[in-house]
């Protein structure tokens, strides 16, 4: 018997340590004795708990807010905002609808003759005239000049071509230019006087566009072209009738996606790439400014819009089948478990051009349109509605 209840040479705290060690040993022996599937289950629960802990502080992207939902009996697509930003024009193929932005209600509806389709339109800078393309493909298109206040067609401008590439008013709303051709060639630019509908100018163009994505700058001077799944952008001077530059990323071999966007002053070009990222080109120097991320999860851009102030872009992203073997297997597996019907929804994202930061993402959305002041973006939804969304501010990265 030892006084004090402890053996010679053993400190009082050692008893507690021994008990703790014995408990740990029993726990480890118990763990090793469990069946393999129980170990896996416990490990999964621990991993889920860790992920849940990381989820809370992480700045996950939230759904982009909706200011108003515009509904019509059929499928209607956003076309253009009026210069004052109070009206949005949409089309459903057979009529053009004007929407009051403040109330979200229909303000006017302009019908198109049976057998014809309203395919595109643009407001004049003074907001008094709406130029509407109508066609019965493969026949030639007609440009209707519509008085916005009365809804009456003041002039119908006939053409000899079945495809238009751009429709541009001059800054004073006195004249309208249409860049015309067919699906394979840009052939002509025609200018009309808005007040009278009289043709006041015509110039032949010769530019092969078959198999190319194309865009025309806001001043009508430059045209960008790129082969589908190509890596080089051609810049063509339409006034001179020749290519003036070929833009290729100096280090990346990535293919280009569909669609371009010129800045308002025509000095900058944005192009999408197959991995969802974007290239920003300075057209004064024909040099690449930078690249920045954009779409993810297998989406790539199929159409880009730049804000009038040039600070942000809105891009329509569509899912593209994976090119890697592993990605293809994963996609095939998901399609199989969904009876072959699975395909990710399209999306619209907004990206800050200064920082490359993604500001917002709208699911099941396409065809973004900026209001003139950039405060609102209209998107077409797969549920056949148009949603008016506030321009997202510079929040935390997404």
What is this entry, summarized?
With about 400 residues, this protein is mainly beta.
Provide a descriptive summary of the structure in words.
- By secondary structure, this protein is mainly β.
- The protein has a domain at 119-210: Thrombin, subunit H (Beta Barrel), CATH 2.40.10.480.
- The chain is 13% helix and 45% strand.
- The longest helix has 20 residues, at 14-33.
- The radius of gyration is 30 Å and the shape is globular.
- Residues 1-17 and 51-61 have low confidence and may be disordered.
Write the layout of secondary structure elements.
Layout lengths: L13 H20 L2 H20 L12 E3 L6 E5 L5 E5 L3 E6 L4 E7 L5 E7 L5 E7 L6 E6 L5 E6 L4 E7 L5 E7 L3 E9 L5 E10 L3 E5 L5 E6 L4 E6 L4 E7 L7 E7 L5 E6 L4 E5 L4 E6 L6 E8 L5 E8 L5 H13 L9 E6 L5 E6 L1 E6 L5 E6 L4 E5 L8
Antiparallel strand pairs: 1-28, 2-3, 3-4, 4-5, 6-7, 7-8, 8-9, 10-11, 11-12, 12-13, 14-15, 15-16, 16-17, 18-19, 19-20, 20-21, 22-23, 23-24, 24-25, 26-27, 27-28
Morphology: globular
For this structure, the CATH topology of the domain at 119-210 is Thrombin, subunit H
- Radius of gyration, whole Å: 30 Å
In order across it, which strands form the biggest sheet? 1-28-27-26
Structural class: mainly beta
Strand count, sense and barrel status of the largest sheet are: 4 strands, antiparallel
Share in helix? 10-25%
CATH hierarchy, class of the domain at 119-210:
Mainly Beta
Distance between the termini: 70 Å
Q: Would you identify the CATH architecture of the domain at 119-210?
A: Beta Barrel
The total beta strand count reads: 28
**β-sheet strand percentage:** 35-45%
- Uncertain segments: 1-17, 51-61
Number of helices: 3
Average pLDDT figure: 84
């Amino acid at each position: 018997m030892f006084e004090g209840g402890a053996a010679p040479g053993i400190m009082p705290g050692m008893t507690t340590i021994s008990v703790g060690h014995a408990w740990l040993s029993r726990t480890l022996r118990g763990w090793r004795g469990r069946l393999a599937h129980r170990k896996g289950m416990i490990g999964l629960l621990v991993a889920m708990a860790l992920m849940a802990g990381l989820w809370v502080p992480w700045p996950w992207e939230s759904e982009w807010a909706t200011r108003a939902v515009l509904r019509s009996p059929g499928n209607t697509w956003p076309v253009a905002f009026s210069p004052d930003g109070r009206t949005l024009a949409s089309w459903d193929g057979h009529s053009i609808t004007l929407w009051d932005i403040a109330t979200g209600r229909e303000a006017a509806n302009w019908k198109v003759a049976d057998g014809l389709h309203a395919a595109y339109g643009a407001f004049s800078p003074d907001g008094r005239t709406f130029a509407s393309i109508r066609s019965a493909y493969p026949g030639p298109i007609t440009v209707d000049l519509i008085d916005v206040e009365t809804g009456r067609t003041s002039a119908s401008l006939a053409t000899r071509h079945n495809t238009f590439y751009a429709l541009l008013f001059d800054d004073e709303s006195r004249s309208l230019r249409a860049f015309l051709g067919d699906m394979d060639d840009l052939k002509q630019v025609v200018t009309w006087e808005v007040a009278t509908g009289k043709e006041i100018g015509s110039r032949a163009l010769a530019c092969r566009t078959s198999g190319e994505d194309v865009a025309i700058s806001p001043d009508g001077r430059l045209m960008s072209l790129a082969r589908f799944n190509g890596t080089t952008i051609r810049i063509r001077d339409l006034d001179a009738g020749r290519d003036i530059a070929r833009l290729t990323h100096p280090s990346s071999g990535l293919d280009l996606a569909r669609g371009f966007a010129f800045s308002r002053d025509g000095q900058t070009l944005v192009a999408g790439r197959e991995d969802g990222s974007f290239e920003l080109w300075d057209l004064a120097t024909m040099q690449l400014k930078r690249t920045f991320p954009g779409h993810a999860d297998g989406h790539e851009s199929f159409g880009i819009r730049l804000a009038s102030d040039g600070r942000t872009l809105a891009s329509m992203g569509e899912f593209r089948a994976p090119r890697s073997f592993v990605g293809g297997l994963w996609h095939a597996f998901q399609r199989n478990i969904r009876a072959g019907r699975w395909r990710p929804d399209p999306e619209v994202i907004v990206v800050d051009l200064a920082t490359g930061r993604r500001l917002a993402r709208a699911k099941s959305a396409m065809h973004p349109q900026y209001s003139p002041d950039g405060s609102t973006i209209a998107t077409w939804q797969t549920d056949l509605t148009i949603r008016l969304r506030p321009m997202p501010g510079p929040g935390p990265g997404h």
